Amino acid sequence: MKVALLGFGTVGKGAAGIIDQGRDKDTAGLEIVRILKRTPADDPRITLDYQDIEACDVELVAECMGGLEPAHTYVRKALEAGRHVVTANKKMLAEHYMELAELAKEKNVRLLFEATAGGGIPWMAALRRVRRIDDVESFRGILNGTTNYILSAMTDEGLDFGEMLKKAQELGYAEADPTDDIDGYDVRYKTVLSAVAAFDAAVRPATVPALGIRHISAADIAWGKENNRIVKLIAAGEKKDGRLSLYVMPQFLHDSDVMARIGKNFNGVEAVSTTLGPSTYIGQGAGSLPTGHAMVQDMLTIAKGEEVTAYEASAAEVDNSGVEKCFYIRTARPEVFAAVRAENAGADAFVTKRMGLNDLLALIEKAADPELFAAVVAD
Amino acid sequence: MKVALLGFGTVGKGAAGIIDQGRDKDTAGLEIVRILKRTPADDPRITLDYQDIEACDVELVAECMGGLEPAHTYVRKALEAGRHVVTANKKMLAEHYMELAELAKEKNVRLLFEATAGGGIPWMAALRRVRRIDDVESFRGILNGTTNYILSAMTDEGLDFGEMLKKAQELGYAEADPTDDIDGYDVRYKTVLSAVAAFDAAVRPATVPALGIRHISAADIAWGKENNRIVKLIAAGEKKDGRLSLYVMPQFLHDSDVMARIGKNFNGVEAVSTTLGPSTYIGQGAGSLPTGHAMVQDMLTIAKGEEVTAYEASAAEVDNSGVEKCFYIRTARPEVFAAVRAENAGADAFVTKRMGLNDLLALIEKAADPELFAAVVAD
To answer: Of A37, A190, A239, A325, which one is the catalytic site residue?
Structure first.
C-alpha cells in the first residue's frame, strides 16, 4: 500500500526508517512515496507543498506533524479524498475526533491512532482486542514519559522538582516550554483518545479535569514514602452506572501496586475488563522508533484489511460526580479546606476525608492558590 | 463458526460461558455445538464419546483437556479432518509442536495456542503483532502464578516455603502434587511455546534447563532484600549470534525492575524487539475466565480469517553456551563450587563469579545435593 507521510520530525523519521528498512517483514507491503516537510532535505520523496501530497497516488496518509493546523485541514482533506488516515497527533485528534471519525465513516475509510497514546505500547490495539469479547470497565495509566521521568527521579534521588525538570530538559525528555507535559494537558488528550477506544465515548478535552505536577515538592514525595506510597501522574477513566468519569491527576499509589514501580521515562497503562480483569501494558511511551512502530502497525492493520472492533464513538459528556476519594493537598490557603480536612501530612499539607472530586475541584478554584498541589490518595 | 470443545474443566467452562453469554460482542459469530467431557452433565451439548465430536459439523476444535493423551490423538484427528485447532494444553503442544504444526500446514488449517502461556495476557498475540515489524531479540517472564504467589508472599510476609505452599494449596492456587509448578516444568512448556512464537524455533522441552523453587528458604529471600533484590521464577529466551538460549531459573532481580514488582499470583512477560525495545504485559496468568478469554480470542482470530504472522517454526536446538551470569547457590556441598565461589551470602550460601550457565549446571549435577537452591543474580 502506498503511503504519504505528513511531517518528518522524530516520529516521521522513525516510521519512514522502519518501512524503508523492513523489506523482510510485513512492512514490505508498505511504501512511502511522498513526504511533506517544512524545510528542504535530500530525500527525493520530500516536498514542501501539500499540493504534491494531494496529487500523488496514495491510499493512506500518515500524519505526524503535530499541532492543530494545518494538520487538521490536511487530515480532513485526506479523508475527503477517500484516503485512510493514521495519525500520531493527539492534540489535533482529541480536539476534532467526532468530526473526523464521522467523515471517515462517510467515506468508508479508516482513521487509526495507536501512536497518539503510550508511544510503542500497543494500548489502542489491546483495547480493540479485549473488546472483541469484553466490556472495558475502567482504565488508568502513566501516559507521559517526561513527568514520569521527573517523578521517578524525585522518588529515587530525592531531588526537587526544579532540578529534575532542568535535568529532563538537558536530556531532551522535556520541552523548553514544558507546560503541556507538567500541567497534564498532554495526558488529557491521551485520556480523551483512550476513552474513545475503551468506551466509544468522545468528550471535549477541555471538560476533562487535569491537574499536573508543577507544584510538587520533595516534601510531598517524602510524605508518600512515609506512607508506603509512590506518586505518579495518572490518567483515569471509568464507565459505571451510566456515568463516564475521566480525570488526570497525580496519585499516591500503594507501593505494592505494580504501576507505582514503572520507572524512568516509561509509560504503562491498565485496562480492567469483564472477563480478563486487569491487564497492564508497559513500554517506551515516546521516541522515534517506538512511536514510529506504532504508526506503522496502524498502516499494516489497514493494509491487511483487518476488521477493527469499536471506535464507533459518540459524543459524550464527562461526569465525575461518582468519583469519591481521599485527597492530599498542600496549599497556603488551608482555611478553604477546613471542613474536609481529615489529618495533617507535614508542614503545609493535609489529607482530606473521603469526598467527591467535583467538590474538591470547587474548593481548589475557591482557594485560588497558584502554588497548590493536589493528588489522589489511591484506595 | 461452529466449535467443538474438548474438556469442560475450569478453562473449558470459562470459554463456553464467554461464548454462550457474548451475544452482543464479536463472540456472537461463535457457537459451541458439542462438548467432550469425562462425566455426564446436564448440558445437552455434552457427550462422553469422542465419536460424537468427529461426527459433528464443526470447523474448529478447541482443546482444554490437559495431559498428553488422549488430547494429542484428538488434536491430530481434528487437524487430519481439516479442522482448525485452538489449544490451552501447554504440555501436549510443547511435546508435539512440530508434528502438529506440520500437519496443520499440510491441511491448510490453523493451530493457535494463546491460552498455553500467561493465561489472559495477550502474550502470543503481542509477539505476533510485534513481529509484523520487528525481530524479537529476547523475552523473559513470570509464567507461573502458583510460584509467583508463593514467592511474593514469602517476600512480603517473611514466611517459609513449606507454609506458603500449604497456604497456596488451601487457596486452590497450587495442586495437591505441586511438582510441575514448583520444579519449573510448567514454565518449561510455556518457555518452549514462547520460543515458537518469538523465534520460530521448536525445541524439545526436556532440553530446556529448568530449576525450580522447591528448596528456596527464608534466608535466600532475606539475602535478596539485603541486596535490594527480589526473587522470581523466570522463563528466559534469547536469540543472539545464531544461538538460541532458553532456560527456567529463579532470578534475583533488581528491586527497580518492574518485573520484580509483579505480585500475588499475577504473571508478566517482557519481549525486547528491534524497534520497540522492551514491552511488558501483565495480567491474570490463570483462572477460568482469563484463560477462557485467551482461547476465545484465538477462535475469533480464526473465525475472522485474520492473517497470523509467524509460527512457521522449525525444529531447533537449545544452546545456552553464550549465557554468562553470576549465580547464587545454597548447598551442603560448597566444596564442589570452590573454584567459582566469589563471595559469601549468609550461612550456607555464596555468589559465584561470572560463569557459564552450562558450567554451573555441570557443577550442580556433580554436587548431587538434593536440597541445593540456585538462582541467577540478574545483571
So the answer is: A190
- Chain A 248-307, residues with CB within 8 Å of chain B CB atoms: 256, 258, 260-263, 266, 268, 275-284, 289-290, 292-293, 296-297, 300, 304, 306-307
Q: Is A107 a catalytic residue?
A: no
| Domain contains A259 | no
A54-66 pLDDT, tens digit per residue, is: 999 999 999 999 9
Q: Which of B37, B90, B91, B190 is catalytic?
A: B190
- B121 in A contact zone (CB under 8 Å): yes
Lowest-confidence pick of A8-22, A166-180, A255-269, B150-164: A166-180
Smallest CA–CA distance, residue B371 to chain A, in Å, is 31
pLDDT band at A210 (very low <50, low <70, confident <90, very high): very high
**Range scoring the smallest mean pLDDT among A69-83, B56-70, B164-178:** B164-178
Residues 6 or more apart in contact with residue A335 via CB below 8 angstroms: none
**B159 has a pLDDT exceeding 90:** no
Both A37 and A73 in one domain: the answer is yes
Q: Where are the beta strands (DSSP E) in A177-332?
A: 201-202, 229-240, 243-254, 266-273, 277-284, 314-315, 324-330
Domain stop point among A275, A299, A315? A315
B268 burial level (CB within 10 Å; 0-12, 13-18, 19+): buried
Give yes or no for residue A311 having a pLDDT over 80.
no
Total count of domains within chain A: 2
Does residue B192 lie within any of the structural domains?
no
Its domain, for residue B359, covers 323-379
Q: What is the ipTM of this complex?
A: 0.96
Q: What whole-number distance in Å separates Cα of residue A266 and Cα of residue A147?
A: 10
Residue A210 lies in a domain: no
Task: Say if residue B51 is in the same domain as residue B88.
Answer: yes
CATH number assigned to the domain comprising residue A335: 3.30.70
Whether residue A300 is found in the same domain as residue A365: no
Are A295 and A371 found together in one domain?
no
Report the pLDDT averaged over residues A278-305: 96
Which of the residue ranges A98-107, A164-173, A336-345 would you say has the lowest mean pLDDT?
A: A164-173
- The CB density around residue B10, as the number of other CB atoms within 10 Å, is 18
Average pLDDT, chain B: 95
Contact partners, residue A376, CB within 8 Å, separation at least 6: A234, A249, A250, A251, A252, A325, A326, A327, A328
B51 with B77, same domain: the answer is yes
CA–CA dist B244, A371 (Å, integer): 55
The pTM of the full predicted model, rounded to 2 decimals, is 0.96
Same domain, A363 and A308: no
Q: Which of A258, A275, A142 is nearest to B148 (CA)?
A: A258
Looking at the structure, tell me whether residues B304 and B375 fall in a common domain: no
For residue B10, the domain's CATH number is: 3.40.50.720
Query: A158: pLDDT confidence band, cut at 50, 70 and 90?
Result: confident
Contacts of B304 in chain A (CB under 8 A): 306-307
> Does A46 lie in the same domain as A95?
yes
CB B22 within 8 A of CB A133: yes
> Tell me, what's the pLDDT at A307?
78
Report the C-alpha gap between B37 and A65 in whole angstroms.
58
CB B213, CB B224: distance < 8 Å: no
* Residue A237 resides in a domain: no
Query: Which of residues A272, A299, A315 is at a domain's end?
Result: A315
pLDDT recorded at residue A79: 98
Q: Say if residues B103 and B79 touch (Cβ distance below 8 Å).
A: yes
